[in-house]
Amino acid sequence: MTVVVDARAGRTNSLRSAGSVLAIAVMTFLLSGCFVIPLLDDRSPFDDPFGASTREVDAAAPQVQSALDGVDPRGGAWSFEAEPWADRTCEGRCHLHVRVTIRPVQFDLDDLTDADRAVTVPADVLRDVLTAVVPVGEETSVDIRVRGDEGIEVPADVSAYLTFPPIADLGPAVTELFGPVPEYGLDAEKYRIDEDLGEYTVIAHTRDTSGVLEAMGL
Fold first, then answer.
1. How confident is the model over 69-107, as pLDDT tens digits?
2. Where are the domains of the chain?
3. How many CA atoms lie within 13 A of 123 on its CB side?
4. How far apart are CA 36 and CA 200, in angstroms?
5. Scanning 9, 64, 147, 180, which has its CA 20 to 30 A from the CA of 187?
6. Keyword Transmembrane helix on this protein (predicted)?
7. pLDDT tens for each residue of 172-210
8. Quick check: 126 and 213 in contact, CB under 8 A?
């Protein structure tokens, strides 16, 4: 019996095998690149490879601070600080952004108690800060997060009767500007408001979007 081998079938199988190997190689390269890019930037390998880099955030922070320097401190009652920041929730630095802290400088120490250790941030102060920094975030393609100071320094005789340091409370200002915030935060397309044990953070997604102030209604 004569067996006839179809050479074309052999070539087809070879091409399929080669194609599979190539596809696997390309996928491996792409996946390894996704991990390598953040690692080379001293970030978590699980961070978004297209997220803000250390260089971008370091360059943006002074520009954000310059914008904050133009915000009215209400007679020296408030100070504003911008700094490069990162989350630590994915086995390393991730979600790099510029963190803005609103800090009270002048306030009545006699009003602070364990039951009420918050210094309320006025809505117009939060509005002015957001109006100043969000455009800079868009220009530099870096996300901005605005928070109240969570550990205000006070004199020793005051801290002696406080179990925890005072905080700058954004809650009333957030409610006035954005309305009531749901229990698990407010997640809009171009911004987010996080709430954790009564402490609020306004997150502007200015890396990838524009028109954030308009979306906020500011």
1. 999 999 999 999 999 988 766 666 678 899 999 999 887
2. 1-40, 54-216
3. 9
4. 34
5. 64
6. yes
7. 999 999 999 988 889 999 999 998 877 899 999 999 899
8. no
Tally of residues, the chain: 218
Instruction: Please state, in angstroms and rounded to a whole number, the distance separating the CA atoms of residues 202 and 97.
Output: 12
Collapsing DSSP states into helix, strand and coil, what is residue 11? helix
The string of pLDDT tens digits covering residues 122-164 is 999 999 999 999 999 999 999 999 999 877 777 676 666 667 7
In sequence order, the β-bridge partners of residue 202 are 146, 193
> What phi, psi does 194 have (nearest 5°)?
-100, 145
* Alpha helix segments (H runs only) across 41-96: 54-68
User: Quick one: tokens of 105?
Assistant: 């400088």
Q: Which two tokens stand for residue 30?
A: 């792409």
Distance (Å, rounded) from C-alpha 160 to C-alpha 184?
Answer: 34
| Entry pTM | 0.77
Read off the tokens for 63: 């520009």
Specify the DSSP class assigned to residue 207: T
In angstroms, rounded to a whole number, what is the distance separating the alpha carbons of residues 181 and 170? Answer: 12
The closest alpha carbon to 177, from 191, 196, 197, 198, belongs to 191
Match 């109240």 to its residue by tokens. 148
